[in-house]
C-alpha cells in the first residue's frame, strides 16, 4: 500500500540498493525504480544526495532519505502496519544493529577486495578476513536466530537484509576463486540461511543473477585498471 | 533500575565512551562505571568477553547482556529508558539524525584525525562545512535541546579544541561560526559540563600523541 509517492534511485547490481528494495517489498510498498546508469550520476541523484552523491536514495513525497540502513529503518517506521523489519525487543535490535554495522565496516570491505585480488598469494591473503568474517557471522546466526531460518528467527529481519544483500557478491567471489565461502562444512547455518533468504518472495526478484553480476564486476575491474588513477 | 543492573566499560578520555555517559546522564540513569586501560592496551578479561569482535570500549551491560558500538548503545538507551528523548520522534527527522550521525563517524572523525596526524586539512574542512550548513539557524543539531547528532558530534565540541591547543594547529576557524557557537553552548550545557573529561589531562595526552614538528 503506497503512502504517497515513493521513488527509489538505484541500480540493479548494488547490494545497498537491494536492501532498500527488499524492505519496500516486505512492506508491499509500490514504488518507482529509477535506474542510475553506470558512470553517470543523474541530476536528481546529485540534488537528492549532495553529501555522498551515492545510491540508494529513497524519495518519499519528494523528500530524500540516504544511506541504505537509514532507509531500511525509515521504511520500517513509516509503514508500521506491515511486517516488522527490526525486532521489537531493544536488546535484539541492538544485536541486529551491531552486526549490521560489522557487515558494513569490516566484512564488506574485505569481501569487495576479493574479486580484485590478482594472483594466488594475493587471493589467499584477501580470502583470510572474509573467512574470518563469515565464521563470526556463522556464530552470530547460531547465537541469535532462535532456530532460524533467518537471523530474525521465523521472519526475515534487519540483519538478514543487511547481510543477505551481499550474497550476490559472495557468489561471484566463489565463482572467481573456486572456493565455496559459504558451505555445509564450515558455515552450515549460513548455508541453510542463504538458500532461504534468496528464495524469499521479497528477495528473489531483486537478487542479481550470478553470471550477470560476474560480468558486471569484471567490467568494473577492467574500467578501474584502465583509468589513470 | 538498580545501579548494578547498568554497567559501562569505558575510558576517561574517549569521546565514544563519553557519548554513552552523556546519554545515561541525560536520561538520569544510574550506572556502575568501569575504567578500561585502553592506552596501555591492557584490556580487562570482561571487556574481551563482552566485545570479542572489536575488543573496544564502550560496552554497556544491562541485566548482564552486553551492547557494543557507541551509536548502537545510544539507540538502545533511547529505546529502553523513557524520559529525555535522544532521537527525534518523527521518522523523517530520525532518518536525518541517523544520516548525520553516520556521516560524522564515517567521514568527519577520520578526516579530522588525519588533519592533525598527517596535516591533511582539506577533507576535514569540507566535511565540517557540511556540518556547519546543517547546523545553521539551530541551537543544537537536535534543535532546542541536545540530541543524537550532538552527542555523536561531541569530539568536535570538546576534543578538537583541545587538540588545537595542544598542537597549535587550528581547524575550527572563523569560517565555522555556527559550529563555534554550538560547541560553546554544548560544553557549557547543564548535564554535559559536569561530565567532561579533564581538560589538562587531555591536552597533555594530545601533546604526546601529536608531537609538533
Automatic annotation (TrEMBL), chain A:
MF-aspect GO terms: glutathione transferase activity
Reactions the enzyme catalyzes: RX + glutathione = an S-substituted glutathione + a halide anion + H(+)
Ranges where the GST N-terminal domain occurs: 4-83
Enzyme class: transferase
Subcellular location: Cytoplasm, Cytosol
An individual GO BP term: toxin catabolic process
Location of the GST C-terminal domain: 89-216
Primary location recorded for the protein, binned into one broad class: cytoplasm
Pfam family name, one: GST_N
Enzyme Commission number(s) of this protein: 2.5.1.18
PROSITE patterns, sorted: GST_CTER (PS50405), GST_NTER (PS50404)
The keyword Plastid is annotated on this UniProt entry: no
Gene Ontology CC: cytosol
Keywords: Cytoplasm, Detoxification, Transferase
Keyword Translocase tagged: no
Highest taxon of the lineage: Eukaryota
UniProt similarity note: Belongs to the GST superfamily. Tau family.
Physiological role: Is involved in the conjugation of reduced glutathione to a wide number of exogenous and endogenous hydrophobic electrophiles.
Protein's recorded name: Glutathione S-transferase
Annotated organism of origin: Nepenthes gracilis
TrEMBL record, chain B:
UniProt entry tagged with the keyword Nucleus: no
Nucleus in keyword set: no
UniProt catalytic activity: RX + glutathione = an S-substituted glutathione + a halide anion + H(+)
GST C-terminal domain: residues covered: 90-210
CDD domains linked to this entry: GST_C_Tau, GST_N_Tau
GO cellular component terms, semicolon-separated: cytoplasm
Gene Ontology biological process: glutathione metabolic process
All residue ranges annotated as the GST N-terminal domain in the record: 4-85
Enzyme Commission code(s) on record: 2.5.1.18
Molecular function GO terms recorded: glutathione transferase activity
Keyword annotations of the record: Transferase
SUPFAM superfamilies linked: GST C-terminal domain-like, Thioredoxin-like
Pfam families: GST_C, GST_N
Xref: InterPro entries: Glutathione-S-Trfase_C-like, Glutathione-S-Trfase_C_sf, Glutathione_S-Trfase, Glutathione_S-Trfase_N, GST_C, GST_C_Tau, Omega/Tau-like, Thioredoxin-like_sf
Protein family according to the UniProt entry: Belongs to the GST superfamily.
Protein name listed in UniProt: glutathione transferase
Amino acid at each position: 500500500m503506497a503512502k504517497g509517492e515513493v521513488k527509489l534511485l538505484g541500480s540493479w547490481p548494488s547490494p545497498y540498493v537491494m536492501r532498500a528494495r527488499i524492505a519496500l517489498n516486505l512492506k508491499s510498498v509500490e514504488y518507482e525504480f529509477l535506474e542510475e546508469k553506470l558512470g553517470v550520476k543523474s541530476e536528481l541523484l546529485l540534488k537528492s544526495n549532495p553529501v555522498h552523491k551515492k545510491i540508494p536514495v529513497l524519495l518519499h513525497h519528494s523528500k530524500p532519505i540516504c544511506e541504505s540502513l537509514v532507509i531500511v529503518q525509515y521504511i520500517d517506521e513509516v509503514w508500521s502496519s506491515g511486517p516488522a523489519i527490526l525486532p521489537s525487543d531493544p536488546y535484539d535490535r541492538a544485536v541486529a544493529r551491531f552486526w549490521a554495522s560489522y557487515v558494513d565496516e569490516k566484512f564488506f570491505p574485505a569481501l569487495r577486495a576479493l574479486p580484485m585480488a590478482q594472483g594466488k598469494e594475493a587471493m589467499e591473503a584477501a580470502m583470510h578476513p572474509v573467512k574470518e568474517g563469515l565464521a563470526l557471522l556463522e556464530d552470530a546466526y547460531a547465537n541469535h536466530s532462535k532456530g532460524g531460518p533467518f537471523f530474525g528467527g521465523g521472519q526475515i529481519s534487519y540483519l538478514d537484509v543487511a547481510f543477505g544483500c551481499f550474497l550476490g557478491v559472495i557468489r561471484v567471489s566463489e565463482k572467481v576463486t573456486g572456493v565455496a565461502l559459504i558451505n555445509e562444512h564450515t558455515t552450515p547455518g549460513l548455508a541453510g540461511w542463504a538458500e532461504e533468504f534468496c528464495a524469499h518472495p521479497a528477495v528473489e526478484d531483486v537478487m542479481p543473477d550470478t553470471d550477470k553480476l560476474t560480468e558486471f564486476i569484471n567490467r568494473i575491474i577492467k574500467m578501474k585498471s584502465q583509468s589513470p588513477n | 533500575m538498580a545501579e548494578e543492573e547498568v554497567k559501562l566499560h569505558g575510558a576517561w578520555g574517549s569521546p565514544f565512551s563519553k557519548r554513552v555517559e552523556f546519554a545515561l546522564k541525560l536520561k538520569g540513569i544510574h550506572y556502575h562505571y568501569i575504567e578500561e586501560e585502553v592506552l596501555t592496551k591492557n584490556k580487562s578479561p570482561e571487556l574481551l568477553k563482552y566485545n570479542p569482535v572489536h575488543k573496544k570500549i564502550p560496552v554497556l551491560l544491562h541485566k548482564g547482556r552486553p551492547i557494543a558500538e557507541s551509536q548502537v548503545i545510544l539507540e538502545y538507551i533511547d529505546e529502553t529508558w523513557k524520559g529525555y528523548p535522544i532521537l527525534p520522534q518523527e521518522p523523517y527527522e530520525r532518518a536525518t539524525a541517523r544520516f548525520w550521525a553516520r556521516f560524522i563517524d564515517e567521514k568527519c572523525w577520520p578526516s579530522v584525525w588525519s588533519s592533525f596526524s598527517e596535516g591533511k586539512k582539506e577533507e576535514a574542512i569540507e566535511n565540517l562545512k557540511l556540518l556547519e550548513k546543517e547546523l545553521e539557524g539551530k541551537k543544537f543539531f537536535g534543535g532546542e535541546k541536545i540530541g543524537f547528532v550532538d552527542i555523536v558530534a561531541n569530539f568536535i565540541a570538546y576534543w578538537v579544541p583541545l587538540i588545537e591547543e595542544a598542537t597549535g594547529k587550528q581547524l575550527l576557524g572563523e569560517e565555522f561560526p555556527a559550529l563555534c557557537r554550538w560547541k560553546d553552548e554544548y560544553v557549557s550545557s547543564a548535564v554535559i559540563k559536569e561530565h567532561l573529561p579533564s581538560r589538562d589531562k587531555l591536552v597533555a595526552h594530545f601533546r604526546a600523541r601529536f608531537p609538533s614538528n
